Amino acid sequence: MSEEAAVRAAIDARAAALGAKDAAGVAA
User: Is the pLDDT of residue 27 over 90?
Assistant: First the structure.
Protein backbone atom coordinates (compact mmCIF):
# COMPACT_ATOMS: atom_id res chain seq x y z
CA MET A 1 0.00 0.00 0.00
CA SER A 2 1.35 3.40 -0.90
CA GLU A 3 1.73 6.09 1.74
CA GLU A 4 -0.89 8.21 0.00
CA ALA A 5 -3.41 5.36 0.07
CA ALA A 6 -2.71 4.77 3.77
CA VAL A 7 -3.28 8.44 4.57
CA ARG A 8 -6.49 8.49 2.54
CA ALA A 9 -7.74 5.36 4.32
CA ALA A 10 -7.02 6.94 7.70
CA ILE A 11 -8.88 10.12 6.73
CA ASP A 12 -11.85 8.10 5.44
CA ALA A 13 -11.95 6.09 8.68
CA ARG A 14 -11.87 9.27 10.76
CA ALA A 15 -14.61 10.87 8.65
CA ALA A 16 -16.76 7.75 9.06
CA ALA A 17 -16.23 7.80 12.83
CA LEU A 18 -17.14 11.49 13.03
CA GLY A 19 -20.21 10.91 10.86
CA ALA A 20 -21.35 8.06 13.12
CA LYS A 21 -20.81 10.25 16.20
CA ASP A 22 -22.86 13.06 14.66
CA ALA A 23 -25.63 10.64 13.68
CA ALA A 24 -25.70 9.24 17.21
CA GLY A 25 -25.88 12.77 18.61
CA VAL A 26 -28.80 13.65 16.35
CA ALA A 27 -30.62 10.41 17.19
CA ALA A 28 -30.09 10.87 20.94
Answer: no
For residue 11, what are the domain limits?
A: 1-28
pLDDT-based confidence at residue 17 (cuts at 50, 70, 90): very high
Separation between Cα atoms, residue 24 and residue 9, nearest integer Å: 22
Rounded CA separation 28/22 (Å): 10
Distances (CA, A) of 14 to 2, 5, 8, 20, 24: 19, 14, 10, 10, 15
